[in-house]
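seq as requested:
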Amino acid sequence: MRSKWMLALIVSMSALVCMGISAQGPPPRTATAKTDAKQLEDVLGRADVVKTQWSGDTTRMLMKGNVKFTYKDTTMTCDEATYTDDKKTKTALVPGKINITSPECDMTGDKGSADFNKRLAIIEGNVTMLAKPKKTDEITDSDSIKSKLNKPTTINCPRLEYLYKDKIATATGGVTFKQDKRSGSASKAVYDSKKELLTLTGDVKAVDEDGQTFAAPVVRISLKKGDEWMEAENASASFKVDTGEEEK
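C-alpha cells:
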C-alpha cells in the first residue's frame, strides 16, 4: 500500500507561491533625518518620455514608452507609469500591462498600483506568476516535499496584493496552481512571511500525477523549518492502493 500522502502537492505548490511573492521586496528607502545615507540604494529607471507637473502641493510624474525600472536583480517593464505625491499620499499607477522579472519568479498582470504610505503593492487582471525556486546541491528524496519545492510552478489569479512592510501576500478571486502533472486551486490564499504561515480558503482542491485527490474548505500550512505542519478542516481525499495483484 502506498504510504505517500498526495497532500505534498498542496504544500509544495503553495510554498512556491510564498517564495515567489516574497521575492518581490519593498521599494528602496528614501533619505530622512533618521536614515543613514548608507541605506540608500539605486533604482535605475528610463522611458521614452518623462513629464513632470506641479500643482500646489502635488507633484505628478508621467513616464511613457518603454518604461523600465531595475532594482538589484529585479526588473519591471510597462508602457506607462504615473507617480503622484501630494504631501499626504504617495502613489504609483501602471494602467496597462506590467511585467516583473527576477531570478526567483516572473510576474505579469493587466495593471498595477502601489500606495507607499500603506506599503501596499497590487497587481490585477490575469495575474500570472512563474515561481523559479533556487536549485540546491542537497540530495533529497525525489518524492519528498523538499524536492518538489525545487520545481517551477505557475500560479494564476485575478488579483494579488502584497503588504511589503508586514510581508503579507493575498491572492484572491480564484487561485490556481500548476506544477508538472500536479494541479490545485483555492478561492483565496494568504501568506504571512514573518510567521511563515499559509492559509488557503474556499473549496481547496488538489490532484496529483497519479489522480489522487484532496479537498477541504480551509487548509493551514506552516513552512517554518523544523515546525512544518498542515491542518485541514473537514478534509476528504482519494488514494491509489497497491494491492500487489497484477492485471491480466
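Residues 161 and 235 are 28 Å apart (CA to CA).
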